[in-house]
Amino acid sequence: MIKYIAIALVLVVISCGEEAGEASEKDNLPKEELTVEQKVEAGKTLYMSNCKLCHGEDGTLGNSGSKNLQETKLAGKDLINVISYGQNAMRGYKDFFEEGDIDNIAAFVETLKKN
After folding, report:
1. For the chain, where are the alpha helices, taking DSSP H only?
2. I want to staple 79 with a disulfide (CB 3.0 to 4.6 A). Which of 29, 41, 74, 90 is the partner?
3. Alpha-carbon distance 54 to 114, whole Å?
4. pLDDT tens digits for 62-81?
């Protein structure tokens, strides 16, 4: 019985390794460029699961001293820089998100602005 369990575990490990290899080959393929609408939608999903606790759904919550995103003057690279490296009490997220995610979050934050 133990022999069969050991064989099954070896097969699982081997198949997981093959899947990981396939995934890394796919990662080497050129990524499709997202439209602005797709970036905003992807950014909204990430924002709602990672940022709304402090900033709120509409950017105005202000928990833990977070800035009102409807009134921010930050845009483009400055906004990406704050999301990446943090500011004041906000930690940086450059090591948390995958490539392109911070750009997508910034694109969504731009839609929250009221000014």
Report:
1. 2-27, 36-50, 52-55, 76-85, 101-112
2. 74
3. 19
4. 999 999 999 999 999 999 99
